Amino acid sequence: MPGVKDIVGKMSNASTEDKALVEKAYAFAAEAHKDHKRFSGEPFLNHLASTAESLAELGMGSKTIAAGLLHDTIEDMKVDPATIEKEFGKEVLFLIEGVTKLGHLKYHGTERHRESLRKLLVATGKDVRVLIIKLMDRLHNMRTLEYVPPEKRKRIALETLEIYAAIAHRLGMGVVRKELEDLAFRYAYPTEFAEAQKLLTEKSKETQVRLELMTKDITRELMKDDIKNVTTDHRVKGLW
User: Fold this and answer.
1) Is there a contact between 130 and 102 (Cβ–Cβ < 8 Å)?
2) pLDDT tens-digit readout, 13-42
3) Which of 67, 165, 214, 229 gives a 20 to 30 Å CA spacing to 115?
4) Annotated active-site positions, please?
5) What is the Cα–Cα distance from 227 to 149, expressed in whole angstroms?
6) Number of folded domains in the chain?
């Protein structure tokens, strides 16, 4: 589990005040959730700290990171919003309440509902920070989806593919979108996931040889035009 030092250490250009706010939020969350466990049996604080760490890695500000640590205090632990405002200010409370509202939106599967829900997500998250906190919350939940009861996994995975991956794409967060898609694919469409994984394994050596030959050809042609110091790279875009 990331500790508060891990989170603060990943904050860019953070002032002493910024760090103090995050440290205070971490301590508050630890106390509020002290008896709260996840499906895996681990402390719920692990999820909050991981969400906050991801926000810090994205370069988000101290209030956003604090809101990431506190985003379940009102909904799950029934902390009075007035207490959050008193301790952390109106802006942090605004972000937490925005994330809470997004958490009430559920995926029900129709095509019409998908697009209207996407629009509602964007409309509800008037401050883009609300959407980013929710995305990091969902990302960590997807990384630990194996511990969720089987009957809930498919809905969560489909919701992630149809809603949250789409939101990440619209925000230009390609790396997050890709991870969400690959994590959700396994649970949303397990048969297809297994087939894709098998095909990728079977074709990986053949594909690698082709890519290396293409790289040599491209480099050679560029050097003919006196383009030097050429660097090429390749990657698998993802199973999904």
Assistant:
1) yes
2) 999 999 999 999 999 999 999 999 999 999
3) 67
4) 75-76
5) 56
6) 2
My answer on whether 164 and 229 are in the same domain is: no
Q: Alpha-carbon distance 38 to 77, whole Å? A: 14
CA distance 169 to 9: 28
Whole-angstrom distance between the N-terminal and C-terminal Cα of the chain?
29
Given a contact cutoff of 8 angstroms between Cβ atoms, the answer to whether 77 and 30 are in contact is no
| Residue 9 to residues 87, 132, 134, Cα–Cα distance (Å) | 23, 20, 22
In terms of domains, do 235 and 163 share one?
Answer: no
Amino acid letter at 214?
M
Q: Residue 67: which residues within 8 A CB-CB, separation 6 or more? A: 25, 92, 95, 96, 99, 129, 133
pLDDT band at 137 (very low <50, low <70, confident <90, very high): very high
Instruction: Decide if pLDDT at 230 tops 80.
Output: no
Read off the pLDDT of residues 189-225 as tens digits, 9 standing for 90 and up. Answer: 999 999 998 888 877 777 777 888 888 888 888 877 7
